[in-house]
């Protein structure tokens, strides 16, 4: 009968029973001399962030459990951390009284569930990002490489049109003057998709063009390189090269090859045809 006797909280005036250690509304102690309860929310937060060291149990006066958790973590040099964290996870949801056997106050289970859900989202988000970002980056690089090949193919088609009207010969001038002789009006053609250049077609220059033209060839020299992109645009130093018959091939160059002259030098060294080798050497 005594346990069910009602009275009022001296702090907020809410009705309480003799069984209430704390006021259900304001949390104040209902009688002098009673022990101040620990916050279960604080217990859960400490367990989530510092559970490996047993800090939450030290806070809740559960000193024995805290010492065991800290000792296992340190003595195993972290190898048994998984076991300690599993233990802590169970405590987050099941421990409701402190080491003095006083019920803890607050919605600790809800807090634990929110923290666990947030931790899971962060973990899987980090794993997904670590796995997905390299894949995304690789896809983007391959798309830029393919787009670059298409640009050179369009330049090759324009070269063949020019040759049809000029006895099979391509423009004789090297570089930008040779490109400007072609029937191409699309400004984006002159820039590799992996680059960040802004092309003003009215003032095409070496600064806003990703490609190099080797003038003086003709369409009968099918194996002759007539244009290529500057190295450094693609992963593994891949470089797209346009040949006189209009095809585009991708070559992998050593990482030390960083300029147009060095690309021409490598092509000349690999060229078995003496006539084409001499043509390339003249362009260095």
Q: What's the overall average pLDDT, rounded?
A: 84
Distance between the termini: 106 Å
Radius of gyration: 38 Å
Give the H and E element order: EEHHHHHHEEEEHH
**Derived structural class:** alpha+beta
- Number of folding domains? 2
Shape: rod-shaped
Q: Uncertain spans, ≥5 residues at pLDDT below 50?
A: none
Helix content: 40-55%
Describe this structure in words.
- The protein has 284 residues and is of the alpha+beta class.
- 45% of the residues lie in helices and 9% in strands.
- The chain is built from eight helices and six strands, in the order ββααααααββββαα.
- It folds into two domains: 108 residues, no CATH class; 143 residues, no CATH class.
- The strands form two sheets. The protein has a four-stranded antiparallel β-sheet with strand order 3-4-5-6.
Question: Would you kindly provide a brief summary of this structure?
Answer:
The chain is built from eight helices and six strands. By secondary structure, the chain is an alpha+beta fold.
What are the SSEs and their pairings?
Blueprint: E1 6-8, E2 15-17, H1 40-50, H2 55-59, H3 63-75, H4 81-94, H5 108-165, H6 175-180, E3 211-213, E4 225-229, E5 238-243, E6 248-252, H7 260-270, H8 274-282
Antiparallel strand pairs: 1-2, 3-4, 4-5, 5-6
Descriptive labels:
single chain; about 280 residues; alpha+beta; 2 domains; 4-stranded antiparallel β-sheet; two-stranded antiparallel sheet; 8 helices; 6 strands; about 45% helix; about 10% strand; rod-shaped
């Amino acid at each position: 009968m005594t346990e069910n006797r009602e009275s009022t909280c001296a702090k907020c005036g809410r009705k309480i029973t003799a069984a209430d250690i704390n006021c259900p509304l304001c949390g104040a102690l209902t009688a002098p001399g009673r022990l101040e309860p620990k916050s279960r929310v604080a217990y859960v937060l400490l367990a989530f962030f510092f559970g490996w060291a047993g800090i939450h149990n030290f806070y809740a006066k559960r000193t024995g459990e805290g010492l065991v958790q800290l000792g296992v973590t340190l003595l195993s040099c972290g190898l048994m951390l998984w076991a300690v964290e599993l233990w802590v996870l169970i405590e987050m949801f099941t421990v409701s009284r402190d080491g003095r056997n006083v019920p803890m106050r607050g919605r600790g289970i809800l807090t634990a569930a929110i923290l666990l859900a947030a931790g899971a989202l962060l973990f899987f988000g980090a794993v997904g990002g670590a796995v997905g970002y390299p894949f995304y980056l690789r896809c983007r690089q391959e798309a830029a490489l393919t787009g670059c090949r298409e640009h050179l193919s369009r330049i090759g088609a324009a070269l063949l049109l020019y040759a049809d009207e000029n006895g099979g010969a391509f423009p004789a001038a090297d570089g930008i003057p040779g490109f400007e002789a072609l029937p191409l009006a699309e400004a984006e053609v002159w820039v590799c998709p992996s680059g960040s250049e802004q092309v003003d077609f009215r003032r095409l220059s070496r600064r806003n063009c990703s490609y190099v033209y080797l003038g003086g060839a003709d369409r009968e020299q099918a194996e002759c390189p007539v244009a290529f992109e500057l190295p450094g645009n693609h992963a593994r130093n891949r470089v797209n090269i346009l040949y006189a018959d209009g095809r585009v091939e991708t070559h992998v160059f050593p990482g030390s090859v960083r300029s147009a002259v060095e690309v021409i030098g490598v092509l000349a060294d690999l060229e078995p045809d003496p006539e084409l080798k001499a043509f390339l050497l003249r362009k260095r």
